[in-house]
Specification:
19% of the residues lie in helices and 26% in strands. By secondary structure, the chain is of the alpha+beta class. A hairpin with a 2-residue loop joins strand 5 and strand 6.
Length: 334
């Protein structure tokens, strides 16, 4: 029978020995702290890598990725920096985007007439992420397809040609409630892998460092083909709108004025927008992204709103960070 202190000592020595052996093996293979790649833990294991240690004081890990590792998605390779969340072109204007700028924005279409269903975002070479309310009526994935690299929906010929993918699976979060729109998130698996192009790329997943305080000071943008306001037509080119992110307490106060004093804002949502700057009809399922160190991280999925751009009424988005584990499990196990 192990005594408590003896068992603790044994486990400590065992873990220490394993880590030392791992470090020794890595050293023999030519790895060092300067040669590994710093990235999110989720990206590391999805790329077939091995988390080794934390990078300085950040939440990122030093990841070793074998050159022969089989990747799950369009993720960093050994010797290359993280490339998710990098725009195709850098447009400084606010309003309409440039072709290829928001390279992860996807369109979900209903076959056979290619009817627009919702926006989405490319999070992995086989997966796009959207709102559950967009696809909960499409139990049969064969009726949907995904278009990447789209910009102008009226033009069949563009300098950067869009690419289309069949959908093999539609996975809706098991806790999704179509009435309250709680857990409004879904993943669609593509039947064939997407390839990185100048106008097609993955968005970055948010980490713990994107706190409420950091987001309040960040540049955040919502994109989509929706209306610019309640009275306008849907946009034919992908639009972009810079929106401020709200503190949850402030958002809950605003929503109580709309839904009554007993309303409670779920911690799994994030709010953004201001007068004249908001997601609108047609933007559902699309990404809300924020910039950090020249990379764009998706913090929200367009879920619902009350009108568009009304004073003191923000739009409500599914908070992506709240579902990172679920996303990770689906991508790795499906």
């Amino acid at each position: 029978m192990w005594k408590p202190d003896e068992r603790r000592t044994f486990l400590f020595l065992l873990i220490f020995t394993v880590l030392k052996a791992q470090q020794s093996n890595d050293a023999q293979e030519g790895h060092s702290g300067h040669q590994c790649d710093c990235m999110e833990y989720w990206e590391c294991i999805s790329a077939g890598g091995k988390p080794y240690s934390y990078c300085d004081y950040s939440n990122k890990v030093c990841c070793f990725i074998d050159q022969n590792a089989k990747t799950v998605g369009i993720l960093p390779r050994r010797g290359k920096s993280t490339s998710c969340g990098q725009k195709g072109v850098d447009n400084k204007k606010d309003g309409f985007s440039e072709p290829g700028e928001w390279a992860w924005h996807a369109a979900i279409l209903e076959k056979p007439r290619d009817l627009y269903v919702c926006g989405a975002s490319l999070v992995d070479e086989y997966w796009v992420m959207t709102a559950a309310h967009c696809v909960d009526d499409f139990v049969d994935s064969q009726s949907l397809k995904v278009r990447l690299g789209e910009y102008d929906v009226l033009r069949s010929s563009e300098p950067q040609k869009h690419e289309e993918f069949q959908v093999s699976r539609v996975i809706i979060h098991p806790g999704f409630d179509n009435t309250s729109l709680l857990h409004d998130i879904a993943l669609l698996r593509l039947s064939s892998p997407a390839k990185r192009r100048s106008h097609i790329n993955t968005v970055c997943m948010p980490g713990n460092e994107l706190t409420e305080k950091v987001l309040a000071a960040s540049k955040c943008v919502v994109t989509g083909w929706g209306k610019r306001n309640e009275r306008s037509n849907h946009s034919v080119v992908l639009k972009e709108i810079i929106v401020p992110v709200w503190k949850n307490n402030d958002c809950e106060g605003s929503m109580k004025l709309q839904f009554g004093p007993n309303y409670r804002l779920p911690s799994s949502v994030v709010c953004a927008g201001t007068t004249g700057r908001d997601a609108c009809d047609g933007d559902g399922g699309g990404p809300l992204v924020c910039e950090k160190n020249n990379h764009w991280y998706q913090i929200g999925i367009v879920s619902f709103g009350i009108g568009c751009g009304r004073p003191n009424v923000p739009g409500v988005y599914t908070r992506v960070h709240s579902y990172k584990q679920w996303i990770h499990d689906v991508v790795l196990n499906s």
